[in-house]
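User: Can you predict the 3D structure for this chain?
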Amino acid sequence: MTPKIDFRFYEFETNQNIPIVILEIQAATHTPVQFDGKEHIRVGSYKKNLNEFKEKERKLWRIFDKTAFEYRIAAENVISENVLKLIDYPAYFDLTNQSLPEGREGILEALSRERFITKTVNGNWDITNLGAILFAKKLQDFRHLTRKAVRLIHYRGNSRVETIREIESNKGYAAGYEGLIDYLKAMLPSNEEIGKVFRKEVPMYPDLALRELVANAIIHQDFSLTGTGPMIELFETRLEITNPGTPLVDPQRFLDSPPQSRNEAVASFMRRINICEERGTGIDKVVFQTELYQLPAPIFEQTEMHTKSILFAHKEYKEMETEERIRACYLHCCLKYVNRESMNNTSLRERFKMEKSNSAMASRVIKQTIDANFIRLYDSTANRNTWRYVPYWVK
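Assistant: Here is the predicted structure, written as structure tokens:
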């Protein structure tokens, strides 16, 4: 079957000792399930190929298109008492700066207004994916969300051969975000000194950059991809943050592209509790922070089914490879452009903390970046002393 679906057998007996077996099958979420490469549908009492009934197929696709992942059902027909056992409702009221209602009904009504739960015809509740993915006490309580828990893995050295520690954050993203960040920061080593800005012990990676990239991985993931979830991997000299789903914009254009989100309800709520901004400035902050901490430029890359962000530990300029210098120059140019500032030899020297006497070194990096088609001279008729540069995509 493609995609793989979850099904479960329940066996029990009635009061009259009659054996009963119930087969529960997970509903399709984003595409009809195929068996042996074909999709089927029940027509009357017969099983037929779906492609023989185009109108029924169109109706199915309209259902998938109309219902966002966040508002599909994570758990059905749950009694009130169990809703409060599954959902971390105190975290919700704390994060939204609301007083906790005195009675159970007040709590359920507040969760219902947020569309975390919806009332059923028999007076029980359905818990939506939105409620579960944000405030589950344990994501493992919702079978199809189990693999969406964020994995945090610490490796020895720079390969994946030996794992020092692995943690799975099993709480909902909103309820568990601060705890996840605390775990990550506790694993990070510190630098006693980085370049000329800091003369004290500082974390290896900027706190703001960590928060932005982790939030981005959570919010912008493609929930329709099964069997995979956000992952944070810490190596000796780099940090990789991966989320399911290819980006909605070219990774080379992360700095200047308007904000877009696959999961609008998740993004909107995370903005309300100040975990993200939805203004499209998150990557700008990441690049700014890496420059401030004098780190190599980050990498944003797209694989076949995932998006990956990579931060690197501090390196002196002389230790950087040509590719790293070019990437730093390009992102510096992008950052200057979106901030309505000019990139020139002087600004690049400041980015690399070069002395004024090393302007020729900065010019060499600029030329290499131009040759790689990442930046260009804005006005070739200007005096050489006033040359400024813009990203390749500027018209």
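Residues 69-144 form one domain. The two ends are 48 Å apart (CA to CA).
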